[in-house]
Amino acid sequence: MRTNLTKIQRCPWCGNFLINAAIKSALKQLNIPKHKVVILSGIWCASKTAQYIDGYGCETLHGRSLPFATGIKLANPDLTVIAYGGDGDGYGIGLGHFLHSCRRDINLTYIVANNENYGLTTGQASPTTPLHVKTKSTPQGNQILPFDPVGMAKSAGCAYSVHMIDKDLPLLTQAIIDWIQHQWFSHIDVDQACPSWRKR
Ligand SMILES: Cc1ncc(C[n+]2csc(CCOP(=O)(O)OP(=O)(O)O)c2C)c(N)n1
Ligand code: SF4
Ligand SMILES: [Mg+2]
């Protein structure tokens, strides 16, 4: 966690605030001390999370939170290791790491804040942008079929993959508690509000 932040780094009403609150609540309810928690994230809006959760953390490289998380878990099996990132991070540039993490089935929890766009870089289409949606990079509407992250995770061997929404905080918190307790790779795709670039 970063303790010297002087300003908020996300827009008002960003769904990442809710998802981060759910993680904090889950860790508290599980009584996991902060020196046993490591948060690894990729790059930007979603990935600022490593700075906001009390515990060890690192913003890694775009799409590379899972290799870092895997290494840390293998070297320190007693730690609770959570990887966190955006849809561009995990399903775009980091897709290979996601699928191979599903195959390896190492005990990590991977949370994806899926706002259906590249928020940081001002709202371009991502692999989960729905058909026909207009974005900065698809001014005529998106022509490419989005994929289903949960279906993809399951087909790659991850039994614990679920889709949640950021606004249902009790349900999301419970899912994070359950998924942290599983001894295998677990994945939560969270429908994350991005009022700045992806109005729904
Ligand atoms: C290797 C690399 N390629 C591209 C970028 C530029 N970049 C930064 S964040 C980002 C996309 C962010 O989208 P997403 O992962 O969905 O996160 P969000 O900002 O929506 O939370 C891109 C393309 C980068 N930082 N590093
Ligand atoms: S651009 Fe979207 S995802 Fe990024 S901080 Fe703003 S609301 Fe959140
Ligand atoms: Mg995104």
Largest sheet: 6 strands, parallel
Would you give the CATH topology?
Rossmann fold
Large-scale geometry: globular
One letter per element, helices H and strands E, the order comes to HEHEHEHHEHEHE
Uncertain segments: none
Strand order across the biggest sheet? 2-1-3-4-6-5
Our count of domains comes out at 1
* Structure summary, number of beta strands: 6
Write out the CATH superfamily name: Thiamin diphosphate (ThDP)-binding fold, Pyr/PP domains
**Overall mean confidence score, pLDDT:** 96
CATH architecture: 3-Layer(aba) Sandwich
CATH class: Alpha Beta
Bound molecules: thiamine diphosphate, iron/sulfur cluster, magnesium ion
Strand content: 15-25%
Task: Provide a quick synopsis of the model.
This protein has 200 residues and is an alpha/beta fold. It has helices at residues 16-29, 49-52, 65-75, 87-93, 95-104, 149-155, 169-181, and strands spanning 37-41, 56-59, 80-86, 109-114, 160-165, 186-191.
Protein described:
This protein is α/β, with parallel strands linked by helices and 200 residues long. The chain has a single domain, classed as Thiamin diphosphate (ThDP)-binding fold, Pyr/PP domains (Rossmann fold, 3-Layer(aba) Sandwich), CATH 3.40.50.970. It is 33% helix and 17% strand. The protein contains seven helices and six strands. The chain has helices at 16-29, 49-52, 65-75, 87-93, 95-104, 149-155, 169-181; strands at 37-41, 56-59, 80-86, 109-114, 160-165, 186-191. Strands 2-1-3-4-6-5 form a six-stranded parallel β-sheet, with helices on both faces. Helix 7 (169-181) links the parallel strand 5 (160-165) and strand 6 (186-191). Helix 4 (87-93) packs across helix 5. The longest helix is centred in the first third of the chain and has 14 residues, at 16-29. It is globular, with a radius of gyration of 16 Å. The protein starts with 15 loop residues before the first helix and ends in a 9-residue tail after the last strand. The model has no long low-confidence stretch (mean pLDDT 96). Magnesium ion (MG) binds at residues 86-88, 115, 117-119, 126.
